[in-house]
Amino acid sequence: QVQLVESGGGLVQAGGSLRLSCAASRIIVSINPMGWYRQAPGKQRELVASITSSGNTNYGDFVKGRFIISRDNAKNTLYLQMNSLKPEDTAVYYCNVVERSTWATYWGQGTQVTVSS
């Protein structure tokens, strides 16, 4: 069973930074497309950032250069470095992977990010 375990969320003041981690097991992060999504109360889940197996990245329009998605293949872990955080970034952040061999999609349990003004 594929498992994704997020960590690194918390409470931070506006303008601060956080780094989210997503440790994957039973799936290889380097060969499968992965992404970070977020969901705020009363809103739909939206894409924050994604990375393909070849390393191409894509970001939501609201990121505007503030976040960086990366992965450590040796640790089989996905990261999201978030800088210049705003109160509107407050949400539960989820890690996602699409298994290329089966096209199955897996989600982590989510990590709460709260940005105070």
Rounded to the nearest angstrom, the distance between the terminal CA atoms is 40 Å
The stretches of 5 or more residues where confidence is low (pLDDT under 50) are none
**Helix coverage percent:** under 10%
Number of strands: 11
Beta-strand share of residues: over 45%
How many H/I helices? 0
Strand-and-helix sequence, N→C? EEEEEEEEEEE
Q: What profile does the largest beta sheet have?
A: 7 strands, mixed
Kindly state the mean pLDDT as a whole number? 96
Summarize the structure.
The chain is mostly beta strands and about 120 residues long. It has strands at about 5, 10-15, 20-25, 35-40, 45-50, 55-60, 65-70, 75-80, 90-100, 105, 110-115. The chain starts with a strand and ends with a strand.
What's the layout of helices and strands?
Layout lengths: L2 E5 L2 E4 L4 E8 L8 E6 L6 E6 L5 E3 L7 E6 L4 E6 L8 E9 L4 E4 L3 E6 L1
Parallel strand pairs: 2-11
Antiparallel strand pairs: 1-3, 3-8, 4-5, 4-9, 5-6, 7-8, 9-10, 9-11
Task: Describe, in plain words, how this protein is organized in 3D.
The protein is mainly beta and 117 residues long. Helices cover 0% and strands 54% of the residues. Strands 2, 4, 5, 6, 9, 10 and 11 form a 7-stranded mixed sheet that branches. A 4-stranded antiparallel sheet has the order 1-3-8-7, with no helix packed on it. The radius of gyration is 13 Å and the shape is globular.
